[in-house]
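new request in #modeling-help
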Amino acid sequence: MKNMDNLDLMKSISIASPSKIVLLVIDGLGGLPRPETGRTELETAKKPNLDNLAAEGICGLSDPIGPGITPGSAPGHLALFGYDPVSYNIGRGVLEAVGVDFDLQPGDVAARGNFCTVDKSGMVTDRRAGRISTEKCAELCGLLDGKVIDGIEIIIRPVKEHRFIAVFRGEGLSEGVNDSDPQQTGVAPLVISALNREANRMADIGNQFVAQVKTSLTEHSPANMVLLRGFSKRPHLPSISEIYKLKPVAIAGYPMYRGLARLAGMEVLETEAGIEDEFKTLTKNYKDYDFFFLHVKATDSAGEDGDFDRKVAVIEEVDSLLPEITGLQPDVIVVTGDHSTPALLKGHSWHPVPLLLSSRWCRTDKASEFSESACVLGGLGRIPATQIMPLAMANALKLKKFGA
Amino acid sequence: MKNMDNLDLMKSISIASPSKIVLLVIDGLGGLPRPETGRTELETAKKPNLDNLAAEGICGLSDPIGPGITPGSAPGHLALFGYDPVSYNIGRGVLEAVGVDFDLQPGDVAARGNFCTVDKSGMVTDRRAGRISTEKCAELCGLLDGKVIDGIEIIIRPVKEHRFIAVFRGEGLSEGVNDSDPQQTGVAPLVISALNREANRMADIGNQFVAQVKTSLTEHSPANMVLLRGFSKRPHLPSISEIYKLKPVAIAGYPMYRGLARLAGMEVLETEAGIEDEFKTLTKNYKDYDFFFLHVKATDSAGEDGDFDRKVAVIEEVDSLLPEITGLQPDVIVVTGDHSTPALLKGHSWHPVPLLLSSRWCRTDKASEFSESACVLGGLGRIPATQIMPLAMANALKLKKFGA
């Protein structure tokens, strides 16, 4: 079954109902065993609540994109929401823009920006300008915001620390240009070049903008230059409510995940970034929605930092807060990740992601704990992540029979 | 994820690196249990080295084409190399031709030929002419080679025993014709017929050729007739190096597998057909390549002959030679087959194929031996064979992250 067909099929059999689904995404959940113990982060964590949920529910492993493919955060989440992550490839600029509540217009081209440090000869010495404070970033963005080049308005908004967005607004812009971010130090920022003839104007404006910025920032070392990447326009995604007839809401402390949820048509709740805050936000708003995407970022950050113990601790924190959710008795709880981030690899990886579904109507399996090794033998088997939404919908009794 | 996209995706995220991958294909590896013992060929074999590799690595089962589909050798191998075996269906004639180093030109139509025996009434009594010697085959091919019919040159080359290739070279030929091989005895060879209007010329030339051959071979019983099948033109496959940025090489004693590897753009090393010779060829050339396709044929031949014990013995021989490979410490070793060939069925079968991947970065599972039953519970689950290459690439750290 092709995935476009999948969404059409969902659209044709989904029904609105009072039942509620919680999708708890523990970012970068999957891991690799620490050689000394043979146990992964998830297998090391003390997590009685998740283990109980696994024992009563059904487990498995999911591939966000496919075996062997390491997903970025965006395709990882798109797959969890049921969209084919290869067909719907969303640019980084768009994600960052919608993640800071920026109202992208059709035709806008958004880029993700880093403030960076360059030396006297123009070589990048720090791609993150020493991770300047968010306040400093906002101040510099104020300085750069509002330039107009050849009729194109350039809007600059701070994101976090050294990161900002640049939105190019006006006629005749294309997203088909390369990054100026060389992704390494010791070299100059790249000239923005067009990937096709239609993108010549975007490349030209981009380069003029970077040149003006360089002048504006001369006195602001370490943030004396910018790097731009992920030039992109807002894509059209059919919305979660359109496909599944849900009233969906996202609770995520980290901008990119809020942005992604908005692209999928979810409402986004105000929340602090702490896990406890996120869980309380869900509780407080539980009566108003029937689909909750709850995103925990800190597992992924710990994995990226290679901090096995911190990742274990975050999982334990999530576990300790789980009764906040189970106490609400949602009809379906799904716990999984958008990809694996093994501390041993210090980055996202291709390993399939532990998956747990709890519902009155699931067919319980023998998995008595939530772990990679138990999930291997779980009743859900190994499935593409795009099949998680249909499973959640079915277990919430929100899907009609297909065919007579 | 559609498979055509899959190759494009691989192309976009593959990176060249010094890490090395060995793909050991034990042809027809999968089996069925002998009723007396309940153990398959693989489960009967004493194979401490493969069992160790399984214990340290990750196991699973692969479907070359799909559940229930029995693969020929060509689609089985195409899937292992990552090509959708249904989209890329390569004719048997082409495979045999490239397998004997024949330089097929665009427009050539190649057919696989058997010398066979017919009785006085023209009925086939032995489809293989008593498996005449390769020397005799070469002599007869010399007799038939070089005929020209209506401007079409017909080139005949010996393969092995009763087998040869016929290559039709000239203008206006099509591959759309049926075989003349009836695949059974007691009937006459079939008239070659066109499957579409464009193929009328090919059918006509083919039938004229067979008629001339019959006259030429009258005195050469038991090889007094030929059967032709698999009329086909060389297809375009994107090469392994183009898709995966690998420097690939094939080591295979049996012509068809060399031919297939060439179609996938691999270099082919000279080697004797013995398993030990093949392994030594790999060792000798290890520094010069980063992807090694090593093919063991004798398991399949034993399975086809219904010789359970011989298949067990071949697996044991492979196992005893395995330290030649593991001693080189490749970054990734994959051991699998192109399909199952259970001795009990005396032929290829649809049963999924045991699969073992060993790498520093694989997520080890509970499979402590390499067997069909252990693979059922392995961490790789049950995957299409086309996903083996992405997994090998990922475990060799040769794939970039997909998406932001």
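bot summary: The two ends of chain B are 18 Å apart (CA to CA).
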